[in-house]
Amino acid sequence: MELGMFCPKCKAEMQFVDINGIMVGRCTQCLGIWFHGDGHKKLSRLKGSEIIDIGEAELGREFDPAENVPCPECGEVMDRVADPGQRHIHYEACGAGHGVFFDAGEYRDFRQKTLGDLFKGIFARS
Fold first, then answer.
1. Which of 5, 39, 40, 61 has the most neighbouring CB atoms within 10 Å?
2. Quick check: is 114 in a domain?
3. What is the pTM for the complete model shown?
4. 44: left (phi over 0), alpha (psi -120 to 50) or beta
């Protein structure tokens, strides 16, 4: 992973911060968040980690229609995936495993599972 990366959605510069050994990049314009590897899963185990996502969900939804979103590390088009535990959350994931990109507000939603999310998961498996 190199510093000086650009956002895969709006092409603005990403700013990086190390949180307990997990490198997190946030877009300076659309406030989307890039996690290297499976950093989003590791960070979600830390209490209060959702504060990294300062963007409003409304801003993030503006970038939902983006297609052919390139991985900021390898340039290959990322897959749009639904989180298995919360099917309403979609994020982009590099097929080569370089990382995942959440639009503004999505990581906060991913991090804060609700009772409704648990019920949705139970009924989705039925």
1. 40
2. yes
3. 0.82
4. alpha
